[in-house]
Amino acid sequence: MDERMIEAAQTGDINLLYELILNDPYVLERIDDVPFFHTPLHVAASVGHIEFMMEMIKLKPTFARKLNQAGFSPMHLALQNDRTHAVLRLLRFDEGLVRVKGREDLTPLHHVVQNENLNLLKKFLEVCPEAIQDMTVRDETVFHLAVKNDMFEAFQVLVGWLMRSWYESPRWEKELLSWPDIDGNTVLHIAAIRNKPRVYANFCH
Protein backbone atom coordinates (compact mmCIF):
# COMPACT_ATOMS: atom_id res chain seq x y z
CA MET A 1 0.00 0.00 0.00
CA ASP A 2 1.20 3.51 -0.83
CA GLU A 3 3.02 5.17 2.07
CA ARG A 4 0.83 8.25 1.82
CA MET A 5 -2.30 6.11 2.09
CA ILE A 6 -0.86 4.52 5.23
CA GLU A 7 -0.11 8.00 6.56
CA ALA A 8 -3.67 9.15 5.80
CA ALA A 9 -5.15 6.20 7.69
CA GLN A 10 -2.73 6.46 10.62
CA THR A 11 -3.39 10.17 11.09
CA GLY A 12 -7.07 10.14 10.12
CA ASP A 13 -6.45 12.63 7.32
CA ILE A 14 -9.54 12.49 5.11
CA ASN A 15 -8.30 15.35 2.91
CA LEU A 16 -5.17 13.39 2.07
CA LEU A 17 -7.33 10.35 1.32
CA TYR A 18 -9.29 12.25 -1.32
CA GLU A 19 -6.13 13.81 -2.70
CA LEU A 20 -4.82 10.31 -3.31
CA ILE A 21 -8.11 9.25 -4.90
CA LEU A 22 -8.02 12.34 -7.12
CA ASN A 23 -4.54 11.38 -8.32
CA ASP A 24 -5.49 7.73 -8.76
CA PRO A 25 -9.24 6.92 -8.85
CA TYR A 26 -8.50 3.17 -8.77
CA VAL A 27 -6.27 3.20 -5.71
CA LEU A 28 -8.88 1.58 -3.44
CA GLU A 29 -10.06 -0.77 -6.18
CA ARG A 30 -6.59 -2.27 -6.53
CA ILE A 31 -6.41 -2.86 -2.79
CA ASP A 32 -9.80 -4.57 -2.87
CA ASP A 33 -8.64 -6.89 -5.66
CA VAL A 34 -6.07 -8.48 -3.33
CA PRO A 35 -7.67 -11.37 -1.38
CA PHE A 36 -5.84 -10.66 1.89
CA PHE A 37 -4.68 -7.12 2.56
CA HIS A 38 -3.99 -4.73 5.43
CA THR A 39 -6.34 -2.05 4.10
CA PRO A 40 -6.60 1.60 5.18
CA LEU A 41 -9.65 0.52 7.19
CA HIS A 42 -7.52 -1.98 9.14
CA VAL A 43 -5.04 0.80 9.91
CA ALA A 44 -7.70 3.31 10.97
CA ALA A 45 -9.55 0.75 13.11
CA SER A 46 -6.30 -0.18 14.87
CA VAL A 47 -5.58 3.40 15.92
CA GLY A 48 -9.19 4.44 16.45
CA HIS A 49 -9.65 7.16 13.82
CA ILE A 50 -13.40 6.77 13.61
CA GLU A 51 -14.24 9.52 11.08
CA PHE A 52 -11.64 8.23 8.64
CA MET A 53 -12.81 4.69 9.29
CA MET A 54 -16.42 5.49 8.44
CA GLU A 55 -15.39 7.49 5.37
CA MET A 56 -13.44 4.47 4.15
CA ILE A 57 -16.39 2.15 4.77
CA LYS A 58 -18.60 4.45 2.72
CA LEU A 59 -16.13 4.28 -0.17
CA LYS A 60 -15.30 0.58 0.17
CA PRO A 61 -17.78 -1.31 2.37
CA THR A 62 -16.13 -4.61 1.39
CA PHE A 63 -13.07 -3.64 3.44
CA ALA A 64 -15.08 -4.20 6.64
CA ARG A 65 -15.02 -7.99 6.13
CA LYS A 66 -11.64 -8.33 4.46
CA LEU A 67 -8.92 -10.18 6.35
CA ASN A 68 -5.36 -8.91 6.33
CA GLN A 69 -2.35 -11.13 5.72
CA ALA A 70 -2.31 -12.10 9.41
CA GLY A 71 -5.93 -13.26 9.23
CA PHE A 72 -7.63 -10.37 11.02
CA SER A 73 -10.54 -8.12 10.06
CA PRO A 74 -10.72 -4.43 11.02
CA MET A 75 -12.98 -5.31 13.97
CA HIS A 76 -10.49 -7.92 15.19
CA LEU A 77 -7.76 -5.26 15.17
CA ALA A 78 -9.93 -2.66 16.88
CA LEU A 79 -10.60 -5.19 19.66
CA GLN A 80 -6.93 -6.15 19.96
CA ASN A 81 -6.02 -2.47 20.39
CA ASP A 82 -8.85 -1.68 22.85
CA ARG A 83 -10.55 0.74 20.43
CA THR A 84 -14.03 0.25 21.86
CA HIS A 85 -15.59 3.25 20.09
CA ALA A 86 -14.26 1.98 16.77
CA VAL A 87 -15.74 -1.45 17.50
CA LEU A 88 -19.14 0.07 18.26
CA ARG A 89 -19.13 2.16 15.09
CA LEU A 90 -18.26 -0.89 13.01
CA LEU A 91 -21.09 -2.69 14.75
CA ARG A 92 -23.52 0.07 13.76
CA PHE A 93 -22.46 -0.32 10.15
CA ASP A 94 -22.93 -4.10 10.11
CA GLU A 95 -23.96 -6.21 13.10
CA GLY A 96 -22.82 -9.30 11.22
CA LEU A 97 -19.18 -8.24 11.62
CA VAL A 98 -19.37 -9.97 15.01
CA ARG A 99 -19.37 -13.27 13.07
CA VAL A 100 -16.47 -12.61 10.70
CA LYS A 101 -14.06 -15.52 11.08
CA GLY A 102 -10.40 -14.64 11.26
CA ARG A 103 -7.40 -16.91 11.71
CA GLU A 104 -8.29 -20.23 13.32
CA ASP A 105 -11.95 -19.26 12.75
CA LEU A 106 -11.87 -16.91 15.75
CA THR A 107 -14.62 -14.28 15.59
CA PRO A 108 -14.85 -10.94 17.40
CA LEU A 109 -17.28 -12.63 19.81
CA HIS A 110 -14.65 -15.25 20.60
CA HIS A 111 -12.16 -12.44 21.24
CA VAL A 112 -14.32 -10.65 23.82
CA VAL A 113 -14.98 -13.97 25.58
CA GLN A 114 -11.27 -14.80 25.77
CA ASN A 115 -10.52 -11.34 27.15
CA GLU A 116 -13.65 -11.18 29.33
CA ASN A 117 -14.84 -7.85 27.97
CA LEU A 118 -18.28 -8.25 29.51
CA ASN A 119 -19.77 -5.01 28.17
CA LEU A 120 -18.95 -5.85 24.57
CA LEU A 121 -19.90 -9.48 25.13
CA LYS A 122 -23.40 -8.45 26.17
CA LYS A 123 -23.62 -5.96 23.30
CA PHE A 124 -22.53 -8.53 20.71
CA LEU A 125 -25.07 -11.08 21.97
CA GLU A 126 -27.79 -8.43 21.91
CA VAL A 127 -27.24 -7.33 18.31
CA CYS A 128 -26.16 -10.66 16.81
CA PRO A 129 -27.44 -13.57 18.91
CA GLU A 130 -26.65 -16.12 16.21
CA ALA A 131 -22.94 -15.48 16.78
CA ILE A 132 -23.07 -17.68 19.88
CA GLN A 133 -23.20 -20.71 17.55
CA ASP A 134 -19.89 -19.99 15.79
CA MET A 135 -17.01 -22.36 16.47
CA THR A 136 -13.27 -22.17 16.09
CA VAL A 137 -11.19 -24.39 13.83
CA ARG A 138 -10.85 -26.70 16.86
CA ASP A 139 -14.65 -27.00 17.14
CA GLU A 140 -14.59 -24.88 20.29
CA THR A 141 -17.73 -22.96 21.25
CA VAL A 142 -17.67 -19.70 23.19
CA PHE A 143 -18.29 -21.85 26.27
CA HIS A 144 -15.14 -23.89 25.65
CA LEU A 145 -13.13 -20.69 25.24
CA ALA A 146 -14.50 -19.16 28.44
CA VAL A 147 -13.63 -22.23 30.52
CA LYS A 148 -10.24 -22.84 28.88
CA ASN A 149 -9.23 -19.22 29.52
CA ASP A 150 -10.59 -19.16 33.10
CA MET A 151 -13.11 -16.46 32.21
CA PHE A 152 -15.82 -17.52 34.65
CA GLU A 153 -17.80 -14.26 34.56
CA ALA A 154 -17.97 -14.46 30.78
CA PHE A 155 -19.11 -18.07 31.10
CA GLN A 156 -21.89 -17.01 33.47
CA VAL A 157 -23.02 -14.28 31.09
CA LEU A 158 -23.11 -16.75 28.19
CA VAL A 159 -25.04 -19.43 30.07
CA GLY A 160 -27.48 -16.90 31.51
CA TRP A 161 -28.08 -15.35 28.11
CA LEU A 162 -28.51 -18.76 26.49
CA MET A 163 -31.07 -19.92 29.03
CA ARG A 164 -33.05 -16.68 28.79
CA SER A 165 -33.01 -16.54 25.01
CA TRP A 166 -33.34 -20.17 23.96
CA TYR A 167 -35.38 -21.60 26.80
CA GLU A 168 -38.09 -22.74 24.37
CA SER A 169 -35.64 -24.87 22.41
CA PRO A 170 -34.66 -28.18 24.07
CA ARG A 171 -31.72 -28.49 21.68
CA TRP A 172 -29.65 -25.67 23.15
CA GLU A 173 -27.88 -27.77 25.78
CA LYS A 174 -27.07 -30.59 23.35
CA GLU A 175 -25.89 -28.29 20.59
CA LEU A 176 -23.77 -25.89 22.61
CA LEU A 177 -23.10 -26.83 26.21
CA SER A 178 -22.69 -30.51 25.31
CA TRP A 179 -20.78 -29.93 22.08
CA PRO A 180 -17.39 -31.73 21.93
CA ASP A 181 -14.33 -29.90 20.70
CA ILE A 182 -11.82 -31.47 18.31
CA ASP A 183 -10.40 -33.54 21.18
CA GLY A 184 -13.84 -34.82 22.17
CA ASN A 185 -14.06 -32.65 25.28
CA THR A 186 -17.30 -30.95 26.27
CA VAL A 187 -17.36 -27.91 28.53
CA LEU A 188 -18.02 -30.18 31.51
CA HIS A 189 -15.08 -32.42 30.60
CA ILE A 190 -12.77 -29.42 30.52
CA ALA A 191 -14.17 -28.15 33.81
CA ALA A 192 -13.50 -31.55 35.38
CA ILE A 193 -9.95 -31.73 34.01
CA ARG A 194 -9.17 -28.25 35.30
CA ASN A 195 -11.11 -28.64 38.56
CA LYS A 196 -13.56 -25.79 37.98
CA PRO A 197 -16.48 -26.54 40.33
CA ARG A 198 -18.09 -23.15 39.67
CA VAL A 199 -18.73 -24.23 36.10
CA TYR A 200 -20.73 -27.23 37.34
CA ALA A 201 -22.87 -24.92 39.46
CA ASN A 202 -24.25 -23.29 36.31
CA PHE A 203 -25.66 -26.62 35.15
CA CYS A 204 -27.54 -27.23 38.38
CA HIS A 205 -29.98 -24.33 38.08
UniProtKB/TrEMBL annotation:
Q: Which InterPro entries match?
A: Ankyrin_rpt, Ankyrin_rpt-contain_sf
Coiled-coil ranges (or none) = none
- Per its record, how is this protein called by name? Ankyrin repeat-containing protein
